[in-house]
Amino acid sequence: MVCDDDNDFIRGIFCPHVAVLCSDKAQEICRKNNLSFSDLLNPYSRLTDVNFKDANGSTINVPNLQIAFSNINSQPLSVTKERSRLHDSVNITTEPSNIAVKIGGREITIPENTPWFTKWRRTFLQIQSVSDHEYTKHFLGCIIVISSSDEEQVSILTQQVQQSILPNQNQSPKWFHTTILRYYVVLHESLNPDLTIANKIIETLQSAYGHSSCHLLRLNSCKYPKTELTEGIWDYLNNSFNLNDSIDSQDQSGEFENSLNSVDSSLIHPLSPQEYNKSLNDESKTHIQKIYGAYLDENDHNNIQDLTKHFVSRSLIPYIESQIQSLNESVTNKKGVSRSLLSATKRWFSTNKPTAAAVPATVIYTNDSPELQTRRLADLYMILGAWSLAFPLYQAAKRDFSADNAWMLYSGAVEMAAICALMCPSVCDNRKAIEYANESVLTYLNTCRVPQFATRATILFCELLVRREMYGEAAKMFIQMTNEDSDLRSALLLEQAAYAFLKSQKPPMLRKYAFHMVLAGHRYSKAALRKQSLSCYQQAYQVFEDTHWILAEDHIQTAIGRQAMFLKHMKQASEAYSKLLARASSQPPEQQSTILRDYLNIKLEYAAEKNDSSIIDLALPLIDQKRIKILLNADSIITKEHSFDEDLLDTRWHKMEEDLITEARGIPPLIFKPTLAFYGSNDTIRQLLYVDELVQVQMTLSNPLNISLCIENLSLTYSFDKELNLVEPQVLDELLLAPSSTTQVILGLKTKSTGILSINGVQFSLLIPSIMSDDTAKKVINGWQRFEMLSPIQFNVQPQTSLMKVDFIGNQINTLIGEMNIIKLTLENAGAVPLHKIYVSTSIEDSFFSESNDSCKNKNIRSLLIQIPPNSKKSVEFCFNSPDTEKFSLDLLFYYESQIETKKQEYKLCRASWFMTAKPCVRLSASALLANQNSETLNLKTIVHNLYKGNEVEQVKLKQVFLYSPEWTLSKKVYPQGSIKNLDQQQSCHLFLQACRTNKSGISKINFDNEQFPHTDMCEKFVTITKSSSKEIKMPKFDRHKVQTEVLKCIDLVLAILWQVVIKDHSNQLRIICGIHRVALTKLNLSVAWPELGCLDASKNIAKPIGRLKIFGPDRNIHPYDGTPLPNDVTGLLESPMNRLLNIAFSHSCTVLHSFNDKKMCIIPILIILKNCVEYKIEVKIDTNSANCSKSDIDDEHFCWIGVINPKPFLLPVSATHAIRLYAAVASQGCFKISSKLDILARPYPPAQNAFLSQIVSSSSLLVIKDPKSEVTS
Q1: What range(s) does the TPPC8 third Ig-like domain occupy (predicted)?
Q2: Is the peptide bond before 621 cis (omega within 30 degrees of 0)?
């Protein structure tokens, strides 16, 4: 029974105890009701409004007086029975209801109460043996019970009671005083109307012992026993063990003995220092529900109540009052009288405190010693609830016992003083009361070595502290009583300490609550109480969950899983292990292997319980549900490595698809809906799927463990509204997931029939880790995992149609700008219907197909003039020129239609995408001008520069030059003549070409070597598409007899250079690369280059000249040395000293005679002489095509440098001279400045932070070209 307040709780423990002695016939009368006489009285043992007089004669009211009736023959339980009694009191308790509390922003579910602790506490206090150091449980009196038919038993029972009073401290019963209270009860069955004998017996007893000590009790008024269970005052006997029931007599039913025999004898008492591991977690055997009081009616109950009232008011209370008076007189008369002079001295001057190493006391008190008499008087007040009267007596006794080193008696007195202080705060403050409480527990525990009394004190004190909301102090006392002596006791007290921390709101102590709940769960587990252990761990996990305390979470989840497994709660164990395996952990691999093995075995056992032989839902490997992708018609993706890229969702594919539809149909679609590449998770309409089309699912599998996972036979799980064998899934035979790794897996399936297809998840076989390292037996478990999509993955499978698959070979990802690339494509119709109307949209304009038709309106679309029957293949080549972009994407989108139209889908798509790079290697620049004002001949100045930087390419070889124009054709004259030298890195080649006017449109070319190039047709195709891709220029028709200014200024031609390099790839394999650079020339005297400098990486590092810095006021020209203003025409004459590091001279013929009618080009050798005129080394380089070259005052359109120029700098020592031979090409007579288009740069060596600066060249070096056949007019 749970007490409502402190008084009821303490009075239920410290109350007057009365012995009961029954004759055999009296026992038979009680046993008809399945009750002993003490059980008969116990429901009526609580009396309200009882008064007694203290030693001063003052009347004190006792609101609720509890009397404890016990069999006089009851003996202490054996150790084995005590162990089982305490263990079973915890184990048989039913589950309480749960409540949710919010603490610190977190909601926690806890039991509404802890009935197992309440029952254990009550059992512990019941079975505690009577001690000699206190008198609260000693019998005050004895009720002698006889029946109306055994008058001769009175003297026998009286003599038996008298014999028990003889002084023998080691035997039961123990009496409060040698003068005990005797009360006589005569039982008479009401069915016997003859009261003659009963009245005679009661009169005899009254004459001998007085009317206040005798009572006639009439029972069993019912003729027939009750057969139905009704809620009554003895129902508690069905729900708990009762000490008195089992030992009233030797001839009882023996039910309690049988229940004890069912418990293994190896159980250890929780207070014992031994340990035990025997599992006692099974629920106790269900006892048969008994009917108590079957022959008792309402009158009988009233008679019993009258008996207890008569006994207490007429006999017990007067006896107690007399004892109070007697003890008070004894204590008062002997007050100040010490047992010895030594004890008196110690009492007044010593401050003895018990210690753990204290020597046991040798003092022996006589029964009438003042110290014990004081203790008796205090205990009398204690059992009556007179706390204020008992407290000073306990304090006096405490001092006496401390002076005599009687530590057992001392700790008992301190314990009772602390209880009185807590029950009556007016006698002592709480701080002092808590000190008393701690002192009594520690003395019991460390000095006296009696943990049972330390446990009792802890239970009582903590209950009182909790009721006073002193949760911190209660928790401390609970914790200090936990040790290795008893797992059960430690578990219960740790659990109560955890709840004390939980109730402590200021501040909240959630983590302390959880930590001590984990400790309680561990001790419950050691005590073989699996259910309570599981409950503790589950409560603790609510606090540790999502705190990222990985080790703590792992420990708790492991414990939950194992306890649930022992309890056969397989679902709960599976959930715990699933959480444990679903994330990274710091556990060692061996422990994780054990956990995984246990988890898989639990899954197998759980499936066996449900009689489910199908595959089992497993938690490993982890599937990232947010990254699941379903690719529709996987065969439509040509580049498989990019099948599941997000790039497929880019809007450029939608634009390309719309352009293809417009080209195929001739008009744009009214409503355009792009074809979906992926299955949408929010789709409510089933996607279309055709027979034999491949659907692929990409998923990310993770292994969070520190051990490898071996997976076999990985495939998709599905459902089909027809036979399942009509679906062909792809199976991954074996997959090894390394520890703490993540991998992507692609699985697919095809259908062979129409219907409704659903994809549900993935199934696999997981290898169970073996216990022995040398175990070669392979044990697997068939498991699966569900896809947690927002909607089911369903497809509407349609009949087979055309299906194009595209394979390719020959594509290189890393290319050079201008490289000619050839991709060989194989188009296969894997469907059952012929396909036609094949269109291809590409992202690169400089491209074409070997089978393409150039009649498409959209320049990015090519039409393939082929039809492919079912199960047939066609091969085509796709050629493209690498653009002048460092990184680019090559996209191909194929559009095709079935020859047999379907209503569901009019066309299908195939797509490919390559992410490529292009490095700069060659740069081509060219310009055109008329030769000697003659419109029949065109001079083409061409510069080819090797831009490559790296070790892969050494030289660039020039193979051919192409010219495509409707009016011009290349002549065979090339300057310089002879073979063209290969270009090393950073070298340039200057070519001077001539073109003649013609009436035939076409491509003309010049070979630089005798080798035959196999792809000449492809080169001409590239030149042609360059012409077609250039802007249309409307030019007037040429008339050689009329001078037209527009004709003289505009031209229309494409100049192309075919080059070749040998490159080493990463595996040191040689690869020959051919490229073509093209420029479209549309105006005379305009230089055009490809690729442009802004497109090259090298151009990013070119320093741009910085103009004059303007700080304040308008910019003005000042002298660099004295700061005086200079006129504008003088500013250009001033140069820095760094511009005069060299003396430059030219050696050449000053006048050259040349007939331009015989030879269109005049080549003049020129020697450039450089001399270092400073006193340190200088670094020199020459540039013949610099944008910073000074312009000649004379028209230099017909003057240029030719030949191979090495742009690499060279060193010129002090006073050294260096000569360089170059060639100048002149196309017309006139006077030319040699320094035209020539830039000589120098800087000091070592360079440090100096940049190259242009050197001043003398302008007096002029070249005069004369044509003797021409008439020169001034």
Answers
A1: 913-1079
A2: yes
